[in-house]
Design brief:
heterotrimer; A alpha+beta (341); B mainly alpha (278); C mainly alpha (257); A: 341 residues; alpha+beta; OB fold (Dihydrolipoamide Acetyltransferase, E2P); six-stranded mixed beta sheet; five-stranded antiparallel beta sheet; 9 helices; C: 257 residues; mainly alpha; MetI-like fold; 0% strand
Chain lengths: 341, 278, 257
């Protein structure tokens, strides 16, 4: 297990990175230390600047301001082929005119490695990403979606990069395949001990794989933390909403006007997760009517019609409540989280 | 310099010199005094006036009329052919498409030469065969306007066929099925679904055929005898026999104007990127 | 029933399209000074004549020189042009695209005349060299389109990936961009050669004292018929048809892969 402690030297250190396209600031003063051997995921909605950030880290784009250090070395001016990093592209960008083996060993060929050594290394990498060895000579166009992912991954690993970048490579796959590959990717990262920087718009994906998550919005990095912190202690309403469906209540004058109950702070907003709501529980209680029920496997989600508007609750599937039922719902203030904005 | 404009530069420069410049020179010549050979800054519209008053209407009329008629004929032949080719997948379609495409690479002078040999009276391939096989002597259509029309259709059909084939390929089969499912008859499917969807191909094909036909002169020269003077021939005569370059240039400009009037509006309506992407 | 009708229509159409070409072949199989079909005496004498005449080979050489140069030069320029046409998105691209296709939609004899006037105005004596230039005005746009078709199915991220994996700009071009373009360049080059080889309307006005095969046939057909003309036409066409078949086969293979 690699050292992911806060005292390890940063693998990648970003300071004040900005990128403007004409009048729009795609990236706005981003500072961040990515630790050696960690799985770091940048999450944000489309247009939040995460792809721009990744392209700058890989050297495919230049920042308009800021510095970028890799293990203490300034790499801001290096072209992509001189950086000890490799990327798995969103479109995968496989070389369609080449075989699987040629794709995988491309970086080695660029370095002048001989054909025999390339083959040996390519076969090893196929093992590593769990592709059969006889795929080596197959045209890459004959591979399925999941196999192409593995080829792209092996190709990026071949250059023995210090850091691997991932640009939403799983977004085009179906749900089950994506789940399988998420777990494998996490496993691979642990086995190889390399630093992975992953970007995605799917929080679910980020939660499964990451050591730490950075949330981006409008070109800015708004919060960085481990999954539990981001989930449990979002910095603001945007992060809270981005992490999933939540109930948000305004706090005014130390009280919750929606329920006429005392609040844990003078002002701001109270974030109440759907699973914090339960029938006949907690210190803030209110009358509710169940309007809709959605089954999510072991749990159910329901929409509640209340004096405070429509709220969302998540209960175990064993609940006896049905659509149209009236009940008294509540939450414990201790299970909630208050944000200033 | 950014890569886009940089890569565009060689082609852009070549076409500026090889396409735009010649047209400018022709425009310049067309404003010179009749029967002069120098380019000066003394401009006159005398040639254009002469073009409209001295009986050049006839060649223009024949060229445009023949072009329109040929385009229409080619369209009527190409549509069912493209549909048949599209409906037959596999070996038959491949061979048929190749056979239809191949004549494009046979020079039009060879093909027209062949057509004239075929139509020749007395000892021609057709007349000779008829006499030898059935003992009948037949006349000939060679050296008539009809022969020129036939030659035009023959030469230009492939130029219509391939864009139309592309157009037919733009029709998703499920749209036709959906229309039929919703109660459209064969004719309604053609009018409401197939023709509009295939339109880009039809427009490109018609445009190409029409433009090539406006300038066509080999058909009239080889098959028409003296039956027709097409506009290109009239212009050429101005340049060569009459040695009146400015007059020839003015007629050329008029032809370019007619062509542009047809090409620009039509081309503006077609999304080239979409058609090429097929 | 409708299917069968379609095949009958197709067969008839193809037969009609080849009748004139067949006629040339039939006419060439005689040495009679006058065209009298069916020939009293079938012979391949016209071919012997054609092969033994210097003129046949001069005509072929002229046509070949022009076509080969047109193919090579168009290919080089069109490869750049196609990158601007389809690979990069840049301001002015839609104007460039329209300007490139314009010469294709331009009457060729008019283009030939305009080029002749232009050449004379700038003091160039027309010859086979100027014909190369003239052919390219019409053929370069076509080759650019042919290569562009190839580029529209291209993921530019492949170039980023190559750079990211350590390839220099030149290596990226050689290892990724060029192999992807190669099939389009092959068909583009063949197209250029064949279109130049068979071109009549541009050659008529721009070759000056030199004569290409299509020009020769055009001028000799109406006036001085002789079986040897048919023989030369057949010889000239055979090569181009063979090359055309190669092209169609290449296109077909590409679609399958």
């Amino acid at each position: 297990m690699p050292d992911t402690g806060a005292d390890a030297p940063p693998a990648l250190s970003l300071s004040g990175l900005s990128r403007s396209f004409g009048d729009t600031r795609a990236l706005d003063d981003v500072s961040l230390d990515i630790r050696e051997g960690e799985f770091f995921t940048v999450v944000g909605p489309s247009g939040s600047g995460k792809t721009t950030l990744l392209r700058i880290l890989a050297g495919l784009d230049r920042p308009t301001a800021g510095t970028l250090h890799l293990r203490g070395r300034d790499i801001a001016g290096l072209p992509p082929n001189k950086r000890p990093t490799a990327m798995v592209f969103q479109s995968l960008a496989l070389f369609d005119h080449r075989s699987v083996g040629e794709n995988v060993a491309f970086a080695l060929k660029m370095r002048g490695v001989g054909a025999e050594a390339r083959r040996t290394k390519a076969l090893e990498l196929l093992d590593l990403v769990r592709l059969p060895r006889d795929y080596h000579d197959r045209p890459v166009t004959q591979c399925s979606g999941g196999e192409r992912q593995r080829v792209a991954l092996a190709r990026a690993l071949a250059s023995d990069p210090e850091i691997l970048f991932f640009d939403e490579p799983l977004s085009a796959l179906d749900y089950r395949l994506r789940k399988t590959l998420e777990v494998e990717l996490r496993d691979l990262q642990k086995r190889t001990g390399r630093t992975f920087v992953y970007i995605t718009h799917s929080l679910e994906e980020a939660m499964v794989m990451s050591d730490r998550i950075g949330i981006m919005r409008d070109g800015r990095l708004v919060q960085v933390g481990d999954p539990a912190t981001i989930y449990g202690r979002p910095r603001d309403r945007f992060v809270a909403r981005f992490m999933g469906e939540v109930n948000v209540f305004e706090i005014a004058g130390g009280r919750l006007p929606a329920f006429d109950a005392p609040a844990p702070a003078q002002d701001g907003w109270l974030i109440v997760r759907p699973e914090a709501l339960a029938p006949d529980a907690g210190d803030v209680q209110f009358d509710a009517t169940v309007t809709d029920i959605y089954r999510l496997g072991s749990r159910v989600q329901m929409h509640l019609d209340t004096a405070a508007g429509t709220l969302i609750a998540e209960l175990p599937a064993s609940t006896r409540l049905a659509e149209g039922d009236a009940a008294r719902f509540g939450f414990a203030v201790a299970d909630t989280h208050r944000v200033a904005e | 310099m950014r890569p886009g404009p940089l890569f565009a530069l060689p082609v852009a420069v070549f076409l500026a010199v090889g396409f735009a410049m010649p047209i400018l020179i022709v425009a310049w010549y067309s404003l010179m005094a009749p029967r002069t050979f120098d380019l000066t800054t003394v401009f006159t519209l005398a040639n254009y006036r002469a073009a409209f008053t001295e009986g050049y209407g006839q060649p223009f009329f024949w060229s445009l009329g023949l072009a329109a008629l040929t385009t229409l004929t080619c369209l009527l032949i190409a549509w069912p052919t493209a549909k048949v080719l599209h409906a037959h997948a596999g070996r038959v379609a491949t061979i048929a498409t190749a056979l239809v495409a191949l004549p494009i690479f046979v020079s039009e002078s060879v093909r027209l030469f062949g057509l004239s040999l075929f139509l020749m009276p007395g000892g021609g391939i057709f007349a000779g065969s008829m006499r030898a096989l059935f003992g009948v002597s037949i006349g000939t259509i060679l050296n008539t306007k009809f022969a020129v029309y036939l030659g035009m259709v023959y030469i230009h059909l492939p130029f219509m066929l391939f864009p139309v084939l592309l157009g037919v390929a733009l029709i998703p089969p499920d749209r036709v099925e959906a229309a039929r499912d919703l109660g459209a008859g064969r004719w309604q499917v053609l009018r409401e679904i197939e023709l509009p969807l295939a339109l880009p191909g039809l427009v490109i094909g018609s445009l190409l055929t029409f433009v090539l036909c406006i300038g066509a002169n080999a058909e009239a020269a080889i098959l028409g005898g003296r039956a027709i003077t097409v506009v290109t021939t009239a212009i050429e005569q101005r340049f060569n026999y009459a040695q009146d370059w400015p007059m020839g240039a003015a007629l050329t400009m008029l032809m370019i104007a007619v062509t542009a009037a047809v090409v620009f509006p039509a081309l503006a309506r077609v999304d080239l990127n979409r058609l090429i992407r097929r | 029933m409708i299917r069968r009708l379609g095949l009958v229509w197709l067969t008839a159409l193809i037969a009609l399209m080849y009748l004139p070409i067949l006629s040339v072949i039939l006419a060439s199989l005689s040495t009679s000074r006058y065209m009298r079909f069916p020939h009293r005496q079938w012979s391949t004498g016209a071919y012997v004549d054609a092969v033994s005449q210097d003129q046949t080979w001069i005509l072929h050489a002229t046509s070949f020189k022009i076509a080969a140069l047109v193919a090579v030069l168009s290919l080089i320029l069109a490869t750049f042009g196609a990158m601007a046409f389809a690979r990069y998105d840049w301001r002015g691209r839609s104007w460039f695209q329209k300007a490139v296709v314009l010469p294709i939609f331009f009457p060729q004899p008019v283009l030939g005349l305009a080029l002749l006037l232009f050449l004379t105005a700038i003091g160039v004596t027309p010859s086979w060299r100027s014909a190369v230039f003239a052919h390219m005005v019409w053929i370069l746009p076509i080759v650019t389109l042919v290569i562009s078709i190839r580029l529209f199915g291209y993921d530019p991220a492949q170039e980023d990936a190559a750079r990211d994996l350590g390839a220099t700009r030149w290596q990226t071009f050689r290892e990724v961009t060029l192999p992807h373009l190669a099939p389009g360049m092959v068909s583009g080059g063949l197209f250029a050669f064949l279109l130049s080889w068979s071109n009549l309307p541009l050659s008529i006005f721009t070759t000056g004292a030199d004569t290409t095969l299509p020009e020769y046939m055009f001028t000799r057909v109406a006036t001085n018929y002789a079986p040897v003309i048919s023989a030369i036409a057949v010889i000239a066409t055979l090569g181009s048809v063979a090359l055309g078949l190669v092209l169609l086969l290449a296109l077909r293979l590409r679609r399958r892969s």
